[in-house]
Amino acid sequence: MRSVLISGAGIAGPTLAYWLKVAGYKPTLVERAPVLRHGGYVIDFWGLGYDLAKRMGLLDEMNRIGYHVREMRIVNDQGRSVARFGTDVLSDLTAGRYVTLGRSDLSRLLFEKSNGQIESIFGDTIVCLEEQPDFVRVQFEHARERRFGLVIGADGLHSRVRSLVFGPQARFEQHLGYAVAAFEVPGYRPRDENVYCMYGQPGRMLGRFTLRNNRTLFLFVFVATTEQMPGTIDEQKALLRDLYRYGGWECTKVLYELDRTDELYFDSVSQIRMPHWSRGRIALVGDAAFCVSLLAGQGSVLAMISSYVLAGELAAACGDHQRAFTRYETLLRTYIAGKQLAAERFAGAFAPKTRLGLSFRNLVVKAFAFPGLASLVLGRDIADSMELPQYRWPGATSREPLDS
Questions:
Q1: Do 235 and 119 fall within a single domain?
Q2: Which of 207, 221, 322, 388 has the most CB atoms in a 10 Å sphere around its CB?
Q3: pLDDT at 364 (0 to 100)
Q4: CATH number of the domain that 215 lies in?
Q5: Is 364 helix (H, G, I), strand (E, B) or coil?
Q6: 240, 181 contact by CB (below 8 A)
Q7: Which backbone phi and psi does 93 adopt, to 5 degrees?
Q8: d(CA 162, CA 98)
């Protein structure tokens, strides 16, 4: 059976659907949300992901809707800059292959790339998976039972497919000691175009980034245990008010905007570490398999890369999914492990837990102004240690991108 059910229409799911279609498979996307998600947070996009977007014909549109951030600025209680560095160093490290864009904007671009060519089911979710020798029997919450040749979980940190097939999330989740929240508002002032402003107190950070259409994004990063993660939006807002009510800079204004919003992204900062990413006819990609954590800044890129490699290996294996799944893991394991280690090192830089830690972080950022130092400090975590594999795509037409 060439049919493949993909759970999740975020980043990994639509990317996988696109490449599976080019590989001659018949993908179906199922997404719990009734429509594509919007809002959330912005992501930095560079390196191999940039190259992959070019192969998919998305680069021009990504650069059009994206942001070219020129400065990261750390401010004190009065809003005065205490440390800053220009992002031209990131452009240098990535050979100009660098852009910032909304995660939901990237998701929409990826979905639209194959929309109308694949089946998409919104407002539904998988409730049971039963593997048979030649197919997987899938039960949905709403739709009728169906059979697919393969099932792929591309459904993020809290993957339903992973929990159904491999066990509860707690078995694989490594909490990094932080939580994150984000929301957008219209009409906020002041606006600092293409500048990411960051304010910190011990164990907590508040960031502000100006978006198009008169909107502003706020990002909270703070120390939290898994037991401190509230469930409802009212409880989440209450926690943020308690943490930031005595903060300086614009904390009071931002909390006022928080009270008025109905949409708040809120989650733990965690990684997923698994001994295997597949079992039988079922496999995982992106955050469902190996979440590096939101603070790593590369989750979306890695989701696209893993989806591309999985589709390419399925095409190369001529229907032998076991061989394809094995090759997929072999190619990516070391690369992903390195990214996870880098993310652990990076997490504490957002919200150092002590005033001494804040001061040291600010000194490091100031030092980035010296030529070559930023490259020395950041280079190993930003540079890619692998190349994208080259594949032949049996379902490609003259209008589709080819690797060669």
A1: no
A2: 221
A3: 82
A4: 3.30.9.30
A5: helix
A6: yes
A7: -65, -25
A8: 32
